[in-house]
Amino acid sequence: MDSLYDIETTVRQTAEAIAAALKIEVEIAGADLTRVAGTGTYSSRCGFQMEDSFVYRHVLESGEPVIIDKPGYDPLCEPCASRGNCLEFAEVAMPIKAEGSIIGVIGLISFDEEQTQRLLENKDSLLRFLDKMAELMAAKAIEHRQNRERELLTGQLLTVLNFLNDGILLTDAERRVTHYNRLAQKLLDIPETEPSTLFQLLDEKRLWRSVERGEVFSGQVKGKRVASQFYCDAVPVANGERIEGAVITLKDVQQIKKLVKAATETEIETHFSEIIAASAKMKRLKEVALKVAPSNATLLIQGESGTGKELLARAIHQSSKRRDNSFITINCGAIPENLLESELFGYDEGAFTGARRGGKLGKFELAHNGTIFLDEIGDMPLHLQVKILRVLQERRVERVGGLHSIPVDVRVIAATNRDLESMVKTGEFREDLFYRLNVIPLYIAPLRERQEDVPLLIRFYLEHYSQVTGKSVRGISPEALRILSRYTWPGNVRELGNVVEYSVTMTPGEYITAEFLPARVLEGPQSGPQPKTSLNLKSLEKEAIIKALTAAEEEGNKEGAAKLLGISRATLYRKIKEYNIREQTVFKV
Ligand SMILES: Nc1ncnc2c1ncn2[C@@H]1O[C@H](COP(=O)(O)OP(=O)(O)OP(=O)(O)O)[C@@H](O)[C@H]1O
């Protein structure tokens, strides 16, 4: 609500001006009938509630001006105690209206004949004059209220700006920084004492080019006063066609990476103590891995699927001084070849049709100061193998469509379940990359070759799944344990975990017995009585190829064998040659 008290000085000056112009006493009251200003005898009575102010109350209620030329005899004076003894000769009262509300009254009072004559001789022009004075005061009161509201809103907006997790810069059309929030000040080290331009703070050429075109910009920009990279979004502020400035938001790229790490990694921190190892092979492997963990050496972990390659890589990262930075994994075999390059190395804005505005960080950049785990490196296409080799040699990455290379400090741990050495022989894997990766080779033996680990792993998964399912399965019968110990575990530890989960879920009692083991374990290949050669990886592979070829031939489609096996046709033909699988062996048997 607009109030005359907020503009007390203006009200007093107005009262004095009216009094000087008309040579008559003036008083101005607020909406609650408190005298805000007064001249002559009234000047000492400001700030007090008026008594017997029946005329003013009527004006406040009706919103209409009143002229009383016979005080004490007018119907409005009827309730007044001084009725009949009134000292006033005449009175004029004009309401003060602000946006539909009545916020006060201007009162003129004459105390002799001469004043009365002056007051009443030209009523119309007097009322017009008073109306203008009332309008002036109302405008001032409205302006004062609007300023107060604007200040409040500015204060609220500044609080919001300072509360945001992004740095915010506002600029004018000349790139002068007109406003910034606390975070922007900290991120860019903006000097508080002198005004800054965008040019002094950011390497902003590309950003400003977009702003000038009236386009939104998103991308990475380097700081000028600080050595940081920022992820910026800039939105032009336009007035019609004219660009009048921009709003720029800033995110510290290092901070984003830390957030990525926090969001993706904290739950799966792995320590060496979590790698279960009873067998001599695993104990020895853990020893070697613990020794190489603190170094920056590139590592290659080989082993069948499910043997714990990723688990080992995580433990190595966790034991290195990179542990506070990201451990980024990428499964090179699971990502379509045409997307793999940009996943690994990122791309710059406009690198290809459909490229995201502002480009995209690659996994190598995300892993800066940390570790990148290149899973299934054996599935990496040859042209990307060259790029990986270059990163390992030069420690810089080049984004797809990028003009400059970016320095990265990344430890590479690669893993594969394929025989990279024979892939090198067949030309499927680059020899130079193989030797680069294989600086320190780590081999995880398949579970069937380290049966001593089986009981310990079973106990671990029993406890885990009993807890997860809320069942109190406490152990396993000797017969069930014997069956599991003789099983060949083609899926290794991952499969063992699944088997225990199945059995815990199925078993009604406190112990897992043989009948609650999955059928494939009961019927599947048992390692004990079988000839040792059948456990050989190569003979298993040969067997699988023969089976796939037979199945495909039965369907009249030889090509389908590669699909069944999940390998390329070229690899299939190479393996047929390698294992000397003759047509009649396959098709005529
Ligand atoms: N020695 C071990 N102790 C405890 N858990 C293990 C061990 N080895 C493997 N695991 C568990 O087995 C599962 C499979 O492990 P992981 O994913 O590391 O295998 P991998 O060799 O990387 O598999 P793939 O080649 O299929 O990617 C995980 O749940 C892992 O925690």
Number of strands: 19
Helical content class: 40-55%
Give the overall pLDDT as a whole number: 87
- What CATH calls the topology of the largest domain is Rossmann fold
Q: Name the bound molecules.
A: adenosine-5'-triphosphate
The global form is elongated
- Unreliable residue runs: 528-535, 584-589
The CATH H-level homologous superfamily of the largest domain = P-loop containing nucleotide triphosphate hydrolases
Strand order of the largest sheet: 2-1-5-4-3
Notes on the structure:
There is one protein chain. The protein has 589 residues and is an alpha/beta fold. It folds into 5 domains: 4-146, GAF domain (Beta-Lactamase, 2-Layer Sandwich), CATH 3.30.450; 164-254, PAS domain (Beta-Lactamase), CATH 3.30.450.20; 269-444, P-loop containing nucleotide triphosphate hydrolases (Rossmann fold, 3-Layer(aba) Sandwich), CATH 3.40.50; 447-532, Helicase, Ruva Protein, domain 3, CATH 1.10.8; 536-588, Orthogonal Bundle (Arc Repressor Mutant, subunit A). Helix content is 43%, strand content 18%. It has 23 helices and 19 strands. The protein has a 5-stranded antiparallel β-sheet with strand order 2-1-5-4-3. A 5-stranded antiparallel β-sheet has the order 7-6-10-9-8. It is elongated, with a radius of gyration of 44 Å. Mean pLDDT is 87; it is low at 528-535 and 584-589. The chain binds adenosine-5'-triphosphate.
